[in-house]
Write a structure and sequence with these properties.
56 residues; mainly alpha; 57% helix; 0% strand; elongated
Length: 56
């Protein structure tokens, strides 16, 4: 319920500013997509994992 209200509010604000999106998703979807990008970057050696666990 809160998520829907937030999305509706944000959409009205974006519309007022002339901004539109092709897709609106939650953070969990973005986190999954980001993880896929990170894993691919590590495999292709665009990034490397540091001792503390951060990827650079």
């Amino acid at each position: 319920m809160f998520r829907e209200a937030t999305i509706e509010h944000n959409e009205s604000e974006y519309e007022r500013m002339g901004i539109s999106f092709d897709r609106v998703t939650g953070e969990s979807v973005v986190a999954e997509e980001a993880q896929e990008v990170i894993e691919e970057g590590l495999e292709k050696e665009y990034f490397r994992k540091m001792k503390m666990g951060a990827s650079m």
